[in-house]
Amino acid sequence: MTGNKKSIYSALAANLLIALTKFIAGSVTNSSSMISEGIHSTVDTANQLLLLYGLKRSKKAADQSHPFGYGKELYFWSFVVSILIFGLGGALSIYQGIAHIIEPELMKDPFWNYIVLFLSLIFEGTSLFIAIREFNKIRNGLGWWEAIIKSKDPSSFLVVFEDGAAVAGLIIVMILMWVSHSLQIPELDGLASVIVGLILVFVSFILARESRSLLMGEGIAPDMREKIAQLAEKDGAVVKTKNILSTYQSPEEVVLMLIIDFEEHLDTEEITEAIRRIRADIKNEFKFVHFVIIQPE
After folding, report:
1. Which helix (H) or strand (E) holds 253?
2. Do 22 and 161 belong together in one domain?
3. Non-local CB neighbours of 97 within 8 Å, separated by 6+ positions
4. Is pLDDT of 86 > 80?
5. Residues 12 and 107 in one domain
6. Count of CB atoms within 10 A of residue 255's CB?
7. Which helix (H) or strand (E) holds 238?
8. d(Cα 201, Cα 77) in Å, to the nearest integer?
């Protein structure tokens, strides 16, 4: 979590620094794509704040109304972030771009736009580098897409997607802005805004998909279930693990329920002792499993 916060703080600082300058440059030079980039940076700034709030809320101690804790707060706020990227980032950028294509206006001298975009690229690139470095620490040799699918912590890859989209958007805007100004084709500036919006919509769908799955109660992976079943069946009192039910309460906390078929000759005290052993073995092997409920068949 510490590494995730580091990448979030770096992204927050970068977006906060450049959002205002993009709006000023866009207003001065009459550039639709720069206004869209300003919207993008503003939404990203709000997103980082929401992620930090979600991380803080997810650490709240369990109470009577939430006996398993508040870990799913992170998944909820990650889902909210994906909606904001779609609505405030993607949709507004597309709208702004289409409006500029329908009623094109010649761009004024884009010199300051280039300065702002270049500085933004440095800030966003630095933030992306930090986010990628922190994400690489938890990938454990997995491919990028596989690591994202298997990750149970949206904050670990959300910043990577946001910063990646930001860098891609900045490059597209710089290229189309230069072509638009050089050839006096103002519609290209609007097209850049539309492309930035489409990139944000694509990113929002990926993030919403992953956050929704976790929010709805995603369980542990099949290979993990198999390992837990084998661990339980090593105990001499166990005949077979009938079923394993699980759900992530947070990236670092799993609720686990095992339905186990015990040897018929065991009495209640022996079964209780076996349950204690199995629970201890599972918690010792899998540190993220905080709650283990074992139901005899």
Report:
1. strand 253-262
2. yes
3. 32, 33, 36, 190, 191, 192, 193, 194, 195, 196, 197
4. no
5. yes
6. 19
7. strand 238-250
8. 18
